[in-house]
Design the sequence.
């Protein structure tokens, strides 16, 4: 599996062959607070880069989760739908949101690496 | 307008508060533990809330003061006993709710707790009915702190011996650090608890006492989930100037004598509504599954006819499910009626539910 890359909308992506796994970052969960509802996309759905792909709701508000990369959804993570609180406890591990078959790997290469993302978060605290 | 801060602003900061702008005030929406933990610890132990942004409006005068206030407030103020409180509202000529409030009979007159966003306008609306012998002022030198939860009484009794003798919706004066506190047994969470009116210069000391007793700070986020589980209205969302108390299912808050005698703003209209019923009604809504139906979610019948709108909706941590309230065509307001809720363009099932979602534990 590749190193994780990050989007400005606080999603992370890892790549294994042409399968990408997407989730939301720890920083995102800290901003959202307690997560109480998750909606993930169905297998077979096409998503565009920066297109809305999933929904996450905290006690405070609903937010869209975007796909940082184009492709076709292979699987949504049912375990976070059943137990949304897991996103808070392990956002960048077991609580991924969806996997997709990647259309264009260059989209992945253009995302931020960990240190650029940390810098981005520090400069944009909200 | 400059953003206002309560006397506890720095204390909130030290406790790791995240702030939001609310009704012109910088207020904590949550602290380090987050909304769910703050909510649960209030229901299982106790939590304190800074509600000093709310208006503490004092009125003084002779017996004509109750007459004057009864023109805009439909409570039975003439027979309200000393240190007793009532939930009521300010009404406009159409019977619409200008604000909801708690009014307490004091030695010199009345004290009214007003919503922060409404308080300046409320004073103007009340002023119209007062005469030169009535004195009135919003007291900005006082903070208002709520202590809520099953352990509230045991903890506060240590600081203010005698509070355990207060019944729900009554209050009294107590001494703390050579200052006067006015404490009522009330709150807005569905739990037993107290609201403490305290001079700004003593409020940090009160919070230290709470911290020593392991009481956590609770922000506006959990205040909202707690009050919604308890089926209580939030002004500006569940209530506004276009909604009357009958639609809001708050007829109980209009005193019996006042319903019969009238003589308050909007009575003509309210009388008709009491006789004939209203077209829409505030109800509890339980969405199916986990989908959250937030404010402005449209309500439909199972056959697709639009019949109402959600005015408050969130996830209820103690109910462990989404909860909501809204206004629905009275024909469909019966408990258990199946409905559809449109969330992000998709219809989800739900039903009309009893309120509260979480059983209240007031000490009456």
Sequence:
């Amino acid at each position: 599996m590749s190193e994780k890359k990050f989007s400005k909308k606080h999603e992370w992506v890892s790549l294994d062959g042409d399968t990408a796994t997407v989730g939301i970052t720890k920083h995102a969960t800290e901003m959202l607070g307690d997560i109480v509802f998750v909606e993930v996309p169905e297998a077979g759905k096409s998503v565009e880069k920066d297109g809305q792909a999933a929904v996450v709701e905290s006690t405070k508000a609903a937010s869209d989760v975007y796909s940082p990369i184009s492709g076709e959804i292979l699987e949504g993570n049912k375990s976070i739908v059943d137990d949304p609180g897991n996103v808070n406890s392990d956002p960048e591990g077991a609580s991924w949101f969806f996997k997709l078959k990647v259309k264009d790997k260059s989209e992945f290469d253009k995302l931020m690496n960990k240190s650029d993302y940390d810098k981005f978060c520090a400069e944009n605290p909200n | 307008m400059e953003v206002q801060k309560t006397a506890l602003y720095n204390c909130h900061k030290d406790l790791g508060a995240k702030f939001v702008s609310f009704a012109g005030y910088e207020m904590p929406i949550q602290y380090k533990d987050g909304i769910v933990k703050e909510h649960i610890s209030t229901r299982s132990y106790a939590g304190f809330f800074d509600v000093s942004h709310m208006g503490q409006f004092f009125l003084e005068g002779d017996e004509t003061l109750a007459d004057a206030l009864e023109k805009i407030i439909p409570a039975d103020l003439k027979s309200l006993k000393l240190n007793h409180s009532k939930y009521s509202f300010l009404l406009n000529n159409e019977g619409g709710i200008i604000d909801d409030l708690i009014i307490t009979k004091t030695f010199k007159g009345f004290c009214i707790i007003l919503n922060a966003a409404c308080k300046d306008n409320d004073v103007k609306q009340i002023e119209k009915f007062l005469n030169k012998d009535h004195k009135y002022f919003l007291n900005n030198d006082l903070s208002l702190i709520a202590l809520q939860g099953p352990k509230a009484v045991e903890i506060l009794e240590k600081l203010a011996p005698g509070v355990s003798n207060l019944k729900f919706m009554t209050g009294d004066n107590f001494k703390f650090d050579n200052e006067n506190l006015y404490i009522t047994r009330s709150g807005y969470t569905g739990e037993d608890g107290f609201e403490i009116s305290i001079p700004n210069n003593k409020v940090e000391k009160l919070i230290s006492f709470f911290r020593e007793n392991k009481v956590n700070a609770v922000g506006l986020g959990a205040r909202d989930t707690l009050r919604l589980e308890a089926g209580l209205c939030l002004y500006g969302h569940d209530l506004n100037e276009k909604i009357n108390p009958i639609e809001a299912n708050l007829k109980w808050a209009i005193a019996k004598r006042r319903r019969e005698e009238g003589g308050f703003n909007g009575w003509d209209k309210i009388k008709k509504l009491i006789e004939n019923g209203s077209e829409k009604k505030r109800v509890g809504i339980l969405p199916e599954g986990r989908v959250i139906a937030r404010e402005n979610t449209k309500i439909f019948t199972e056959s697709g006819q639009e019949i109402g709108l959600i005015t408050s909706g969130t996830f209820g941590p103690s109910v462990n499910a989404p909860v909501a309230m809204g206004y629905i065509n009275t024909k469909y307001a019966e408990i258990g009626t199946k409905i559809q809720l449109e969330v992000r363009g998709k219809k989800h099932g739900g039903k009309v539910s009893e309120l509260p979602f979480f059983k209240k534990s007031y000490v009456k």
The CA atoms of residues 68 and 129 of chain B lie 5 Å apart.
